[in-house]
UniProtKB/TrEMBL annotation:
GO CC annotations, alphabetized: membrane
Record keywords: Membrane, Transmembrane, Transmembrane helix
Gene Ontology molecular function terms on file: catalytic activity
Gene3D superfamilies associated with the record: CHASE domain, PAS domain
Lineage: Bacteria, Pseudomonadati, Pseudomonadota, Betaproteobacteria, Neisseriales
GO process terms (BP): regulation of DNA-templated transcription; signal transduction
Domain PAC: 554-605
Classification via PANTHER family: DIGUANYLATE CYCLASE DGCE-RELATED, DIGUANYLATE CYCLASE DGCP
Boundaries of every PAS domain copy: 365-426, 606-679
Residues annotated as domain CHASE: 151-245
Protein's name in the database: CHASE domain-containing protein
Localization (cell): Membrane
PROSITE patterns, A to Z: CHASE, PAC, PAS, PROKAR_LIPOPROTEIN
Listed SUPFAM superfamilies: PYP-like sensor domain (PAS domain)
Amino acid sequence: MKALAAFFYRYFVFFATLMLGCLVVFGSISLIQRQLLHAAQDRLDVLSTGQAGQLEARLVQQQEVLLGLQAAITLDPNLDRLQFYNLLLQSNVMYRHQGLLAIGLAHPVAPDQLAEHIAKARSDKRVAPLAYQNYKVEPLNEKSTMLLLDYLYPINRLTEQFLGNNLSESKALQDGLNLARDSGRMLASEIFTLPGHQRDAVFCLFAPIYSNLPAEPDVANRREHHVGTVIAFIRINPTLQPLEKTMQHYGLGWQLSDQGYALQTWANDHVASEISRQEVAVGHGVKQTSVQLVHLPARQWRLQINAYSELLDEHQNEWLILAAGVGFIFSLIIASLMQYLYQSRQWSLNILAQAQDEESELRAQMQLLSQAVDENHDPIVLRRADGRIVYANKAANLLFAPAGRGLLGKYEVILSQSEVGDIHHPASYLVPFKAAEDSVKQLQVLLQPIKNKALQTIASAMVVHDMTAWHEQMQELKNSNDRLLEMVNISSDWFWVQDSEFRFTEVAGGFFARLDFNPNFFIGKCRWELGSGGLSEQEWDEHRALLAARQPYRDFEYTSVIGRETLIFSVSGQPFYDEQGQFMGYRGIGRDITPIRHAQKALYSEQQRAQATLESIADGVITTDVFGRVDYLNPVASSLIGWELQAARGQMLSAIYQSVDRSSRLPLPELVSEVLKDGGEYHGSRRSMLLNKFGLNFQVEECAARIRDEQTRTIGAVLVFRDISNWRDLDERAELTLD
């Protein structure tokens, strides 16, 4: 970023002049381009106006044919079908107007005159007898006057479908016919398609015919004197064909829409319907648009012409590009000339300033280098090839010349003879040095030869670094390692290290010395390669999965045969990594837990025997802690008090065991509480009545005693009771016998 900024600063005059010239050229080109765009829009408007005028002229010619026919029929309202046909045939209208599909004459017919009308149409065999032999009216309306199309020219397979049509019931023509009849004007219909010819769109022109119409008629007069309507069917595609060719020639798109009747054009809910459209560049945006209106009788069409590129002369853009290129080149030449004139002066000034800056910078660097070397904490001594000291920094003078005499100019050896010998390669060594304060320092000496361009040694540099602290740390580390090794040898545990493949690389500990076993036996082996260890294959798989996940583990137990002894080992391991985070393996400790497991096994056996004894005796036994909470009860006690061990454990004894006096039925003090409170070892037996959980009562004999540990500390109490209900019955029977 700085280099780019410096580049622009250096050629500032060039870029400023070039930018100014480009702005002038761009402004001129933009102004010319705007004028060309206005000219292109004017050209498009002229083209659209001409096309709309030509389309309207073609429609006016077709209207004139209809107006002439309207005038002829108005003069002779009784014109028959043959005369109508010959009149149009002789005028050659179909050839002069290619968009004209057919011209017809529709007469109003009352429902009571319908049969006579059909018979008359079928009986006239002079014109198209085959088309009229099946003449019929569709759709039929027997309630009101129908407007039937019975005269038609020409009659062919396409147009014969119009014969007999009741136009007053046509959705496409009904509104236009009624409006033309009531207004007395020629009207154009909306666009519709012929049945069976969905692609052939047509529209109609209506011209009403009246007989004996008053001079200033109203709507009622026009309806009363209406004798028929002349209709021209005009095809859309041939009418628009010249427009399509012109638009294709210019590469323009266009859209023709029907705005509706003139009275409906400004209605808020009126929506224009599309007549036809053509796009020459689908997916491209419209650059220019021109809209013109085409006027029909009481109706308007909207012609929109779209230009997808500016309607310019093909050479205009080339001239603009050429002018822009010439302007840019001219600006470039002027900018280069201005830059040359500016830099010719600046170059000489820059060369002088650069030389001064380089000299100042070199002096500053030399001063900084001299200060850095002089203030360095490591002694630095520089000798010539003859051994004369030519430089010594403050640290060197302070360490090797404490009397203040200095080292400069001397030839004496400071630390070793290597200093004054021929030095061709760097050398490094450690020497002890007795300082002025009678302390011995460990110094690391680095001798570096200084050579000229011919690779001849002209001087040498001696750099001394005080390694006393490092030497003491290394000695302390050695002592620590020795102490650790001694502790390992006398410890009952042992230490082990595994590599990344979980093979032992180091095993140490005094445990193996006591067993007279060489721990190198484990080196290079995995733990599971030493034997099954009393574990299943699944347990070993779980252990290997734990190692593969590089997770720490504790107290992993397995058995191992060492010598003639089978021992139980418990090992714990932790993964370790190098400085780059690379997995290196596991390391941990192991210990012999064989005596612990044997003691646990013996204790468990003793507990099982005591448990079996308690569960087999006939007395109920309940033990508590020092707070009187139930810790254990045997099956006999459970059956007498009605409590299970799981539910009773942790409860206060008074909550599950309650005894009352046999005679008074009053609660008796708890024997366990008295034993724990009074500090007595044993409470003599007594007879009482036990109330159990389910409301039953038993005659029992109970006693309690304190439980102590091996240090004679009280750890709880035991309550022993037996069911003597049967004995009570015997005593009562004996008393009755004596009485």
